[in-house]
User: What shape does this take?
Amino acid sequence: MMEKMILTDNADITEFRKNEIIEELLNITLSQLNEDNFIIFPPILKESEDLEESNFIFESKNKKVYTRNIVGVIGKGHDEVKIKTRFFNNSESQSDYFLKYMFQKVLNYNVIKNETKSDNLGMYYDLLIYLFPFYLKRAMKKGLYKEYKTKEYNNLNVRGAINIIKNINKNIPFNGKISYTTREFSFDNRVTQIIRHTLEKIKQNYNFDFFNDMFLKEDIQILVQNTKSYKNSDLVKILKDNILNPVRHSYYEEYYDLQKLCIQILKNEKIDFGNNDNKIHGIIIDVAWLWEEYLNTMLINKKFIHPKNKKSEKGISLFSNRQRMVYPDFYNLDEKIILDAKYKKLGKNKKEIYREDLYQLISYLHIIEGKKSGVIYPDIDKSESNEIGQLNGCGGEIFKISFKIPQEISNYKEFVVEIKKSEKIFLNKIDCIKKIIK
Assistant: This one.
């Protein structure tokens, strides 16, 4: 019996705990997942600066089961579980506009002409399309993928094994040539071909303007120039070859991720990574990371610094001798402001901050001798700022800013109009905080 389930992030799903997929992934961290069977964004353990490897997809706590800051689609056999953002309007015909919008802003892609199909299937399939340029650029930093291919020649420049049968058929009586085969590196191979097939499918079927990025455009030109044997009719053969022969060389691990993504895009709606349907597989997206990076697209223009934890960049020194660094989500040393991006639910009390989060804000505030420190979180009700209180001792104010995510929206175009209003209100509140400090 086929079972399909739609959940939302940060929700109590105890009633569904007997679902086979949920049972298998319960209390399993992202770092424990079999990467062969999952596409994880941002790529875990590699260049994701702030993604917590201890993040759970499903977590049991106090005899209850919850989803966390993860969205995506997970399958096993005929069963499928989709996790959407909690801001998704639970309708069969409506896409997760908030997730789609954050992808466009963070990855800097434009949607042109008209919107792609927005049914339940198309929603996460479209996310694969969004990820393609990201993974392509990431892989191309290693240069275009090359591998050995066996080639046949018929000339005098012998540099391989002579093919006796072909030599007899082609060159007897002797015509001055010799038939031979050799193995040599080639940029035109199964991996670059599947990337080319994916590119052509996107160009044919989608109205996304991926190609306004100068560096991406250059990468695409290099790919096209080096895949001259491309034929659309070869798709099935190329797809099968890549499924059976994944990239394994450690130097090209970025191409392995890109190869997996291309396979999914070319196989359309079926989310799997091979021939064994009994293995759990899926697409996993850390939406908390996406929320933080989305805020950065706005706060960077307000002179806030967004440190990169795992790269040890732009942190704040905890001690005067710089022996240890800390990494707030955002800070402005000139204005003495600390901002913390929180995607998780923060409770119904507008003036409450969880104890661990509060202690973290206070410690950051103390280190920079700051004046204000606050949490920014998404909310369905309205955009507003709330003062939590003035701190004793060294002083400073703690606050919360809610960011309204539009609800009851009939189409994506309307969603964009409404969320831009939320962005304007949010930035005005940031400006007000800065003015009060001055």
Residues 111-121 have pLDDT under 50 and may be disordered.
